[in-house]
Amino acid sequence: MRVVIDGIEVEAKDGETILDVAKRVGIRIPTLCHVPGLFREATCRICVVELKNGKLVPACAFPVSDGLEVMTATPRVLETRRTVLELLLAAHKIRCQSCPRKGSCLLLELCKEFGIEGIPVCAECPLSEEECLLARGEVCLGPITLAGCDAACTREGRPCTGCRGPVTRSDVLQEALAVYRKYEIPIGKVLEVLSTFCSNSPAYEKVKRFLGGQV
Hints:
Blueprint: E1 2-5, E2 8-11, H1 18-24, E3 48-51, E4 56-58, E5 68-71, H2 75-91, H3 106-113, H4 152-155, H5 170-182, H6 187-198, H7 202-212
Parallel strand pairs: 1-5
Antiparallel strand pairs: 1-2, 3-4, 3-5
């Protein structure tokens, strides 16, 4: 059967999904919940694509048919994926410092791709929880600094400078507070270091009020 994806005409087979065909011709469609051979319930909706009739469908579960025309990166598709990702992130427990996927987080990569902030540097830090700079007694701003820089500072063996600014989500700050207390890092010292990089920003004031009340 003939299927057209992003203007590319492809021969497809019975039983294939849009995602199957797209992968075969090298067209990337992001996924989170899709695990080939194990899970195909289309629950995350990150892989939505647009059909010629304007309908949005999940690429991982929608079967192809002869004459099907699909667009994978229209403005509507990209905006929908971004909204879906924001909703997923809002409900996600952000405990990056102790997460086994830290340093290899697909959710973080998608957030960077779609310009969504809220995940701390700990998500991209390659150091294990036991090797964390905080475990060495060093002040690291990773738990309260926005991810997106690939944690270059940490890879060089020195504390994150917080150059991207602080995370302001209360659940992230609460988790950061627990991490700092676990390693007996003085909150006052954390705020002192943070102030050298972003003391004039509204975000800093919010973090200062939250953590400052815990000193």
